[in-house]
Amino acid sequence: MSDSILTTGSYDKTDCSRYNVLVNVFLYPYGIRDFVFKTVALKNSDQVLDAGCGYGVLSQAVQTKVGKEELVGVEQHAFDISWDMLKAFKDVSNGRISLLQSDVRALPYRDNSFDLIVTSAMLEYVPNIEDALAMLKRCLKPRGRIFVFMSRKSLLNTLLFIPFGKPKTYKYKEVERLLARVGFRKIQRHWFPFSSLWLNVWGVIIEATK
Predict the structure, then answer these.
(1) Which of 81, 118, 168, 199 lies in disulfide reach of 31, CB 3.0 to 4.6 Å?
(2) Distance CA 43, CA 102 (A)
(3) At residue 28, does pLDDT exceed 60?
(4) Which domains does the chain carry?
(5) Which residues make beta-bridge pairs with 152?
């Protein structure tokens, strides 16, 4: 790889603690859970990947939905570049999610492995977002779906993320074009539900199909 792994995206224990405070102040886990419950369709035997899982907010929302809908055979996988993030996730998980330390640009998963990929606040830290999206697309099965939760380009986010290495933020149209460029289709924008309406000021949600 020509680009080195971003140290600002690796998150040590101090960064992890700051991140945990930030997401909980804005009730982000509740917004994610509400969105997943209402919008993300799952079925029996789905293979699911949480890309850049952090503390596992998305994975835990998916797992709760699987239990609530009494789905069977669903397998969940998650990776993050930060050992500290993965350890924090492991400490609160029940051990039924397969965790891996990896860089999104060099994933070891086989082609066409997953029915669904979800990713939140990870792509902002990748030097070449197009390479990362292409890698995630490779891992999706034909007609598999991806849900991207990204920080919106705004002055508010610029200020909020100063302690986290100043990640690059994007406008919706920019991400839409990047997804289309690597071959995704059926690209559509979603919104956080009314119960978490304030989170739409923070970010955008984009669904796309391989």
Answers:
(1) 199
(2) 27
(3) yes
(4) 26-209 (3.40.50.150)
(5) 170
